[in-house]
Amino acid sequence: MELIIRNLSKSYANGVQALTDVSLTIPQGMYGLLGPNGAGKSTLMRTIATLQEADSGTIRLGEIDVLTQKEEVRRTLGYLPQEFGVYPKVGAEELLDHFAVLKGITHRAERKETVQALLQQTNLYEVRKKKLGGFSGGMRQRFGIAVALLGNPRLIIVDEPTAGLDPAERVRFLNLLSELGENSVVILSTHIVEDVSELCSRMAIIDRGEILLEGEPLAAIEKMRGKVWKKIVDRSEVAAEEAAHHVISTRMLAGRTMIHVHHDARPDESFQPVDPSLEDVYFAAMGRHISGEGETPEAAVLA
Ligand code: ADP
Ligand code: MG
């Protein structure tokens, strides 16, 4: 089963064009949707989750026409929104049981079994009686995943689940997600490059409603090999470097500034080669977009 999005556009009543002609083919497994705040990630996810209408375009999930057969989608969808409220005074097990009833798991013994299994899977079994108001951010997100997994969804959408988690919680959460992959379409949106590089076999980069690049992270990184160069400069020199070269990132390093430039050949002796990372891919794609340079999304698609 694949999720196939074609020419999807969406504007809001206030005139914001949140998605422009988005086309993506999302196979089973973990798919990363990477982009900065305001890129359109949540808009795309809410549209796939049948929570809002598109202006134009199509979405198919296997045989299902997502934009018209909403009930069919909802039956097989697990959606973890970017922000969700929990009832602070209710225990995790009790609330999960309640959501299971809403999901249609009405048979008591079956429901109990499902709820226990999900609490185990999300590592919340020990705290199942604890009130959700006392949960940490990571525990809340894991609870959100438990809710999303009710009913064995084949389409799982998680919107920026790692934002706000501390490093240990983030790793635990990504490990949990990585177990879901294989038999479902799992779409993870994030503004954190490492979420995608650690977890996703395919990805898209989105900015201001447009897909800048779609493909495999490893292939995208390989495409950059031999074309990324680094140099450590003083902060005062950064502007001159940016004027002279295609600087894709600058970062502070022990009080100085490390710049990465994207160039087919070594710009000069002062630059050292870099083993490219997904961050270089991301910043290069974003840089082209901001400067409005050449490469069309079609040209950036990787096999
Ligand atoms: P992301 O999830 O990548 O941060 P969003 O999909 O939330 O991006 O937002 C994309 C753009 O659409 C932003 O400019 C945002 O301000 C705008 N937007 C999002 N939701 C609404 C809404 N309900 N009404 C008007 N504008 C919105
Ligand atoms: Mg969002």
Write a short abstract of this structure:
The longest helix has 14 residues, at 108-121.
For the record, what is the CATH homologous superfamily label of the largest domain?
Answer: P-loop containing nucleotide triphosphate hydrolases
- Report the span from N to C terminus: 20 Å
Order of helices and strands: EEEHEEHEHHHEHEHEEHEHEEEHH
Number of individual domains: 2
Shape: globular
Enumerate the spans where pLDDT stays under 50 for 5 or more consecutive residues. Answer: 294-303
Number of helices: 11
Give the strand line-up of the largest sheet: 6-7-8-3-9-10
How helical, in percent, are the residues?
Answer: 25-40%
Q: CATH class of the largest domain, please?
A: Alpha Beta
Q: Under CATH, the topology of the largest domain is which? A: Rossmann fold
- From the alpha-carbon coordinates, what is the Rg to the nearest angstrom? 21 Å
Bound compounds = adenosine-5'-diphosphate, magnesium ion
Which sheet architecture does the biggest sheet show? 6 strands, mixed
Could you explain the architecture of this structure?
With about 300 residues, the chain is an alpha/beta fold. The protein has 2 domains: about 5-220, P-loop containing nucleotide triphosphate hydrolases (Rossmann fold); about 225-290, no CATH class. About 35% of the residues lie in helices and about 25% in strands. It has 11 helices and 14 strands. It has helices at about 40-50, 70-75, 90-100, 110-120, 135-150, 165-180, 195-200, 215-225, 240-245, 280-290, 295-300, and strands spanning about 5-10, 15-25, 30-35, 55-60, 65, 75-80, 155-160, 185-190, 200-205, 210-215, 230-235, 245-255, 255-260, 270-275. Strands 6-7-8-3-9-10 form a 6-stranded mixed sheet, sandwiched between helices. The protein has a 4-stranded antiparallel sheet with strand order 2-1-4-5. A 4-stranded antiparallel sheet has the order 12-13-11-14. Helix 3 crosses helix 4. Adenosine-5'-diphosphate binds next to helix 1. Magnesium ion binds near residues 41, 42, 82, 159 and 160.
